[in-house]
Amino acid sequence: MTDQLIISIFVFVLALFVGVEIIRKVPQTLHTPLMSGSNAISGVTVVGALAIIVITRDSTSTFSHILAALAIFFATINVVGGFLVTDRMLKMFKRRN
Amino acid sequence: MITFLHQLESNCSLAVAPGAIAIMRDLTYLVASILFILGIKRLASPRTARAGNGLAALGMLLAIIATLAGAGSSALIWAFSAMGLGAIVGVFLAVRVQMTQMPQMVALFNGFGGIASAIVAAAEWIKITSFEGPRDQSALALVGIASLIGCATLTGSIVAAGKLHGSISGKPIPIPAGLFVNIALVAVAVALIVALPVTGGALWALILVILIASALGVTLTIPIGGADMPVMVSLLNSYSGLAASAAGFLIFNKALIVAGAIVGASGLILTAIMCKAMNRSLANVLFAGVGTADSSGTAGTTAEDRIVKRADPDDVAIMLEASQRVIIAPGYGLAVAQAQHAVRELADALTKRGVNVAYAIHPVAGRMPGHMNVLLAEADVPYDELLDLDQANPEFDRTDAVLVIGANDVVNPAARTDTASPIYGMPILDVDKARTVFVLKRSLGAGYAGVQNELFFADNTLMVFGDAKKTITAITAALAEL
């Protein structure tokens, strides 16, 4: 676990820096779509919940299946709703003529 | 598809295959992470933004497919039923929501992200504690951290969404000794997170973490006033990302760690921008409970005994037509009056007469970062006419007329001059530097900060009282008759 933890911290910290760099360049006009879009991205938890269901084979624990399914449900709302509503907003941004 | 995956699964029983699938999965997560980054990069311009959102969505799809590769059929049934139901709810919400309701929807979605991460942590807890023999200590601590952030995000988001939607009072509800309560809750939560690995993952410790985190979400958001909600929504956005990252640490999933970190950074940057726009520290927003209209503003001057100059829509039309450059400074009052389309029609009519029209948008003009820009885009206002604070301020002394519609504190010159004012130091739109300022307002009431606005009494200001939408429509009609 310690190795994993160190790798995780590396990935996390570097990703934070990347995030700060790219998000600083987003103009104020697009801050709402940025929030709803990044919100959709934070629904990536769906992947974690799916992994739990896939890895726990042969109903080792029905209860953890139910929990994971619940997490998948909420995270999918986040993903699908988030990307869709962001697209809906971005469609409205038009240049003069 | 299912039979294909079955095939994959049976292949997995061969010695090499599981490793190969795991490697493919991890590499796909890398591709997904790159797509998330490229997607947000494209949000740097409205021209590429839509494609960027599509790239991020594609990344998510790839990550989901990679995770399901090699899954058994019962797992797939579970997965697709849950995803199907979630997708239906997601589509329903995304299609139905009005643009004015966007802040509460984003708040609610933040909450869903948070609870999903907390549930993943609980499922992991079951796995860890059902394991005979020594239990993974750091994993148990991570269960606690993910539960803490996830549950606090959920309840905090529900309160924020309720306040924004109006189902909970938008007024700040102070908690007695709020700062102390919050610090105490955090301290207990930290102690419990330590207790989790020490006790080998005791159920009571996990349940207490969940309860305390849920309470913390409420105590952090309930004292915050409606005007400060843009900060809170940004902060909750950040929490939802950090919750995903924490879950990623726990199950060692790099896609979750990267995506969560980026969202966490995004929320923090937006929080900082919002705080700067209000000249407040984050601690001040979270604990000071400003927004109570206690009218403790500039000393002794009540609106009643001061003289303002008035104008009616006909006067405004004549003066606007004679202008070369007009800037519109909208506040949330514009959206409340549903006057976005009326404003755009007025701008169109002026443009047709050779007047140059632009919009000056203060960062806190709406109920969340960038909200006003979306509301105007919805009314077909071209985005290249939208100026932010830094672009707009140098323009005002070259501007013939400014129309202030439903904005108050963000155009109050006291922020520049009156050191006694509670909003002193807040960056404002310097509309008072324009030749003429028209303020469209219902009455002389004070703004959110409870401060009287000196702009209303300035020599170059003309007040146009009434409902914003009716006034604007009347101006456009008067313009047509000139």
Properties at a glance:
heterodimer, A: 97 residues, mainly alpha, 4 helices, 79% helix, B: alpha/beta, Rossmann fold, 3 domains, six-stranded parallel beta sheet, 6% strand
Molecular structure report:
Chain A contains 4 helices and no strands. Chain A is mostly helical and about 100 residues long. The longest helix of chain A is centred in the C-terminal third of the chain and has 31 residues, at about 60-90. Chain A is flat. In chain B, helix 2 runs parallel beside helix 10, helix 6 packs antiparallel against helix 7 (about 180-200) and helix 9 (about 230-250) runs antiparallel to helix 10. The N and C termini of chain B lie far apart (about 70 Å). Classes of the chains: A mainly alpha (about 100), B alpha/beta (about 475).
Strand content of chain B: 5-15%
Shape of chain A: flat
Radius of gyration of chain A: 18 Å
What would the principal axes of the Cα set say about the shape of chain B?
elongated
Strand content of chain A: under 5%
Q: Kindly give the count of domains of chain B.
A: 3
Helix-strand pattern of chain A, N to C?
HHHH
Q: How many helices of chain B in DSSP terms?
A: 18
Major sheet attributes of chain B: 6 strands, parallel
Q: Secondary-structure element order of chain B, as H and E?
A: HHHHHHHHHHHHEHHEHEHEHEEH
Q: Report the structural category of chain B.
A: alpha/beta
List the helices and strands and how they pair.
The complex is a heterodimer of chains A (97) and B (482).
Chain A: H1 2-24, H2 31-42, H3 45-55, H4 62-92
Helix pairs in contact in A: 2-4, 3-4
Chain B: H1 2-12, H2 17-41, H3 46-68, H4 73-96, H5 102-129, H6 137-165, H7 178-198, H8 203-221, H9 229-251, H10 254-277, H11 282-287, H12 313-321, E1 325-330, H13 332-336, H14 340-352, E2 356-360, H15 371-378, E3 386-387, H16 389-392, E4 401-405, H17 414-417, E5 436-441, E6 461-465, H18 468-481
Parallel strand pairs in B: 1-2, 1-4, 2-3, 4-5, 5-6
Helix pairs in contact in B: 2-3, 2-10, 5-6, 5-9, 6-7, 6-8, 6-9, 7-8, 9-10, 12-18, 14-18
